[in-house]
Amino acid sequence: MARHFRKFVLLDILSLNLVFFILFFIKKQTVVLTFPYSHLFFIVNASWFIEFIVVNKYVRMDTPFLIDRFYHLFKSSMYVLTLTTLLIVSFHLHGYSRLFVLRLFLAHFFILLGVHTRYYRLVDAKHIFHPLKSHLLDNFDWRKFLQDVFIVPSSFLAVRWFKNDGLQIDPECQQLLVLYTGLWMAFAFWTAKFSKEKAKNIYFELGLEFRVLAYLAVSIAFLIFILGVQEFSRVEMFGPVFFIFVLKSVLIIMKYYYLKKFPHQEDVEAVFDIQSQLRQEELLIPERKFSRATLSVGKYLETKYLKDMPEMYGFLDSFLPLQDIEENESVILDTRNLYNINIQKDLSARLFINLHKVNDVGPVNKYILTVHRKLVAGGYFVGCKSTMSSYRTRFYKKYPRYLANPLYVLDFLIHRVWPKIRGVNAVYYFVFKDRSKIISRAELFGRLTFCGFNVKQSTYIGGSLYFIAQKVKPPSFDTNPSYGPVIKLKRIGLNGKAFDLYKFRTMHPYSEYIQDYVYERNKLDQFGKIKDDFRLTGWGKVMRKYWLDELPQVYNFLRGDISLVGVRALSRHFFQLYPKDVQKLRTRLKPGILPPFYADLPESFDEIVESERKYLQRKLKKPLSTDFVYFFRILKNIVVKRARSH
Question: Which residues have CB under 8 Å from 640's CB, separation 6+?
């Protein structure tokens, strides 16, 4: 969502609820909701939330033309209204005024209309009117049309027969059948469902069917709501919708299964360049035209492997001594299979390149450790990964927008959250075979460092992140790197002894292993923390701002590792940045949950050091009174001056 639209989201939902209570007060002379308006209140808000998530109207409203915003506001209001009526009819909610609902959405629409009119200006009058779609009847597919002409009435009659234990076509049934068929055909024409154009994939074709059926369902519900029709049951009204979708889904799945089983073979010259096919074969089995003992890998990469990737070759040539590495000292692959890596000789390569994305090779640590075993000391590992932004782009191209939004949330829970939950992550790896993983830059660099590499350089080329890592040390012996939502961090405590500090995760997994890497490149900001720390997640920044990530430290407090007030517990890396005298003072006292930073509010790292020195010296002389004074100063700055973590 565009940032300048985020404030309108809060205004949107608040105005909807405010209008609801005003209309209810005018009608009942009270603001205490009674049945059925209490249920109606929940239904209205649920409909707004569903529409906001699925349609994402504020992304679509990111346009400079006011008339376009009016259109999207109106369409959004109609979506919420029809969804509300669908839920009302589905739950048989009675005892309310239909005019109340219509006035609610009409008033809400005009409030938003006024706000957007006041806030934005019309910048291009030429875009006020938009022509209607002219392609709806182009390339008309009669087979699709005749298929629906048979399926829609048949589904309606089948449900009618099931409901009444027999087929009774009375006048009311005939009217409803005509209404069903007419609405179905109208929405089918509107969405260009009968076009000869092929859908991108099975998801788009199923999504189009679902879209038409959704329009049909909400339209039926809206007509029932407006006309007050009650003689038909919910099964008779909405049963055909479900039955049609099942039949159409079965037919579509069968069609795609048939196409997959018996694909239409095209001539390779008509689809691909024959030379590109040969180059792919050469990548797997390189020709031996030159003496491997004398040919440098740089020339080999430039003329053969990376001939069609000049940007990639330029990146490697800038940061690697390619001319000093012989071709027989290098391994160049494009594989996702660990077997192809394992068959290489151990400790034999000075350069190992795999052009296949890390996301599909797994398990990731096993893959990196295998490469580590093949390289000599100081050898280079070159690889790539799919970026999170490119993954999102491909995901949204795969599904229609109204399906992509909720499915992306589900995909996030499955592929980002599920693998990090201890105890059930084994089920994830059993189901998905450790492929198509979503890996952040911080996690990848952390895994490389954990496995004994030092990341030298990285760059983005064609939607992928390419990296150069050097083998500099043995792999870490840490048997439990942080991966779950609650992490243990080694911190310096009383008498200089290390202890495990518990926090909620705010960084990507394995981020703790690249603290030196990030510090060397970014240094510290004015608050004594690393600048532009890409290890932080989006929700992690919010949790840090309000100290939510520090809630597990209550366990450390109860266990006696830390006190309520005291200097912040530091990692060994940050501890070594302090002057020697402050280091000694720090080890004489326990660290704390509430640091003196929030009492003095220093504005630079030097001021932070001086603030802590002053606090520690004072506490060594008067421990209780010092903590008492600092506690209330911290509380005042947080509540009154709204001091927040950074």
Answer: none
Cα 211 to its chain centre, rounded Å, is 24
AA letter at 411: D
3-state secondary structure of 116: helix
What distance in Å separates the CA atoms of residue 305 and residue 326, rounded to the nearest whole number?
Answer: 15
Q: Each residue of 191-235: pLDDT tens digit?
A: 778 777 777 788 888 888 888 888 888 777 776 676 665 566 667
**Under a CB-based contact definition with an 8 Å cutoff, are residues 354 and 333 in contact?**
yes
Q: How many Cα neighbours within 13 Å face the side chain of 597?
A: 22
pLDDT in tens, 517-576: 888 887 776 666 777 888 888 888 888 887 888 889 988 998 889 999 999 899 888 898
Strand partners, 461: 464
- The backbone region for 452, taken as left when phi is positive above 0, alpha when psi lies in -120 to 50, beta otherwise, is left
CA angle 310, 315, 318 (to 5 degrees): 120
Burial call 605-619: b when 16+ CB within 10 Å, e when fewer: bebbbebbbebbebb
Question: How sure is the predictor about 134, in pLDDT bands with cuts at 50, 70 and 90?
Answer: very low
CA distance 370 to 365: 8
Cβ neighbours of residue 332 closer than 8 Å, sequence gap 6 or more: 283, 286, 297, 301, 305, 353, 355
C-beta of residue 374 within 8 angstroms of C-beta of residue 451: no
* Helix, strand, coil content of the chain in percent (nearest 5): 60, 10, 30
Tell which residue, 423, 396, 390, has the closest CA to residue 408: 396
Residue-level pLDDT at 614: 92
Encoding tokens for residue 635? Answer: 């509380």
465 bridge partner residues: 385, 460
Q: Where are the beta strands (DSSP E) in 286-340?
A: 330-333
Distance from C-alpha of 364 to C-alpha of 344, rounded to nearest angstrom: 18
**Average pLDDT of 318-331?**
88
Taking the model in full, what pTM does it have? 0.58
Give the mean pLDDT of the chain. 78
Q: Residue 233's Cα: distance from chain center in Å?
A: 41
Contact 220, 183 (CB under 8 A): yes
- Taking Cα atoms as reference points, which of 118, 139, 98, 244 lies closest to residue 181? 244
User: Residue with structure tokens 């295998």?
Assistant: 370
* Alpha-carbon span 44 to 111, nearest angstrom: 17
d(CA 173, CA 166): 13
Burial of 478-515, coded b for 16+ CB within 10 Å and e otherwise, reads: eeeebeeeebeeebbbbeeeebebbbbbbbbbbbbbbb
**The two structure tokens encoding residue 448:** 């490389």
Mean pLDDT score, 408-425: 75
Contact between 349 and 330 (Cβ < 8 Å): yes
Question: Contact at 8 Å (CB) between 536 and 503?
Answer: no
